[in-house]
Amidohydrolase-related domain-containing protein
Amino acid sequence: MFFLTLSIFTSIFLSANSVQARKFRDTGDNEKLGGTNAELVANLLDVHNQRLQSMDSNNIDFMVLSCAQPCIQGFSDPVTAENMAVLVNNELAGTISNNTERFGAFASLAMHNATAAALELQRSVKELGFVGALVNDYQQSGADGQTLLYYDQPEYDIFWQMVSDLDVPVYFHPRTDIQTILNLTYAHAPSLKGPAQEFAVGLSTHILGRFPKLKIIVGHLGERIPSDLVRIDTQLKRQATLGLIMKQNVTTYFRTNIFETTSGNFAPELLNFHINQIGLNRIMYSIDYPYINIPDGTAFINGLARTMKKEDHNSLARDLAIEVLRLND
Ligand SMILES: *[C@@H]1O[C@H](CO)[C@@H](O)[C@H](O)[C@H]1NC(C)=O
Ligand SMILES: *[C@@H]1O[C@H](CO)[C@@H](O)[C@H](O)[C@H]1NC(C)=O
Ligand SMILES: *[C@@H]1O[C@H](CO)[C@@H](O)[C@H](O)[C@H]1NC(C)=O
Ligand SMILES: *[C@@H]1O[C@H](CO)[C@@H](O)[C@H](O)[C@H]1NC(C)=O
């Protein structure tokens, strides 16, 4: 069986010129994430052994690897960010180059300079064979790292034009907010940060009106947005005078340009609700390893096979991903 899962590649950078696994969540609860911290680090880096075995034993044919948040979006200095992106992309390409039947990759991009981002995406797709890009929400910039860049501004048109021309998806992944925001919003209740609440929305759809062919992927069942479409669209209409430049409403974009993945949001009833809201033809199965254990994904997708029609299940587990990522091209 061919299951597609989106996975997270080895992050983060402990030195200026080598890509290393980060010391992953050394909080003592790594048991839940599949073994000890040392096992996890080894598994992140050594995709050809443990990872592949785990894919085989969980019926996963293909994994897309990418750099865990915040990755390049955390580098405020443009030159460092651009060099790091090239380093990560080259390293990842080298890692998977002898097994592209089982592994694909999303490019990491420095988003300081839209032209440079466009060119690195083009190189990653054309020369390295990557299937798209993944950005971890806003790009930090400025001397103090406190200026946040969003990609709906006109200066990014050149980037989105390249995305359109290459016909590859861009995955919007959330990131942990900068400390300033965390202090202002979550100082009273740190347990709410991250996926519990903070990640709920990190997506701007403004660009879509200008680039009708764009394919945007949003994880974790659309970061909850499809659960709230009517309210969002009603409110956006009211606030249009504040400068809304979208041509369509968010509901429409979720049916024309945006795809979502399950990534760890393994809630069958919520999935059914989303299928009703945006259509099964917008939803792809993914796991979100290493934040989520691979067998948990298997239990979810296998469980759905009991209630979904075979062709619907195939669409969710593989067919749509093959189409969006153009794996058969
Ligand atoms: C690819 O290269 C890695 C590292 O040398 C190796 O462990 C792995 O077995 C190779 N995979 C294939 C399919 O040749
Ligand atoms: C942005 O990147 C392009 C392509 O590398 C380069 O020609 C241009 O000078 C850069 N712009 C700035 C402001 O650094
Ligand atoms: C966040 O709050 C902590 C604790 O009060 C403080 O030490 C730190 O400087 C603050 N950081 C920012 C960026 O505001
Ligand atoms: C969104 O736009 C579509 C197409 O114009 C329209 O049919 C629908 O009623 C709108 N939804 C909301 C909630 O405004």
